[in-house]
């Protein structure tokens, strides 16, 4: 426990420094443009022991049995340490919330930064994955609807750890729409509620099966999302609505909620693509924590253009995010330019 208290003290010193510099003038910097030009890779069948290579063929990453075991137990240790570090580090924020020492939006933003710092710092101490972040950083971030594929239970940790690099230090605070069933985990419940993440309740039908949302919960989710938009938060939506048990074959059916939110709030849509988490912790319960690769990539794209209808959004998300999520490579430049300004 002493080591976690020291971790929390160090984290809060870091937070105090960030709060002192929070209102300093922002230094302008050039937006990061994306590096494209990699050929499209068709999705391949996945048996839990191989990953697709540049040609789209199944190819082993040649991890030794020792490294597979080391990466797996490193992943378990990382998750276990997160379960202790987050609640300990959130104690000052919990005190502020209990005694109403700060506005609700400020407390939510602080809780989010705590979760991100825990995920980022612990990943540097327990580097069980090789995380590559390909950012898109705007000089002047505007309120945005972010959308991403959903391939593994590791996704949340990757989003938290990568967010500062992915969207830049001047990024806006973000709220995530998530499945309320995750609240069964007390650590998720503490962090998600403190950060103001937005739950939606649905039947636990298993990954890959149709979602059955509870109408009352869905209405509350829409109300909370509109409130978050009004308060200036960015919103992260997972349009597949659940974990994808077959990410190597492409995306699941895409729900129109993210597009509807963007249209009703007059906000741009920006895509985020994840690849590789499923090679460490697969959504297919028959595979589970079977590590076949240590490489994980998360990539942010510029705002979508030519996205006037839900069909446009679905096609863009499927082609851009679906391709990167299944193979780790972008579609060709000319096709990518069709959807965004590069």
Automatic annotation (TrEMBL):
Cited CDD domains: LPLAT_AGPAT-like
GO BP annotations listed: lipid metabolic process
The keyword DNA damage belongs to this UniProt entry's keyword annotation: no
Domain Phospholipid/glycerol acyltransferase positions: 144-277
Signal peptide (residue range): 1-18
Keywords linked to the UniProt accession: Acyltransferase, Lipid biosynthesis, Lipid metabolism, Signal, Transferase
Pfam families referenced in this protein's UniProt entry, alphabetically: Acyltransferase (PF01553)
Single GO term (MF): acyltransferase activity
Keyword match Transferase: yes
Metabolic or biological pathway, per its Swiss-Prot or TrEMBL entry: Lipid metabolism
InterPro entries per record: Plipid/glycerol_acylTrfase
SMART domains documented for this protein: PlsC
Superkingdom to which the source organism belongs: Eukaryota
Protein name as annotated: Phospholipid/glycerol acyltransferase domain-containing protein
Taxonomic path: Eukaryota, Sar, Stramenopiles, Ochrophyta, Bacillariophyta
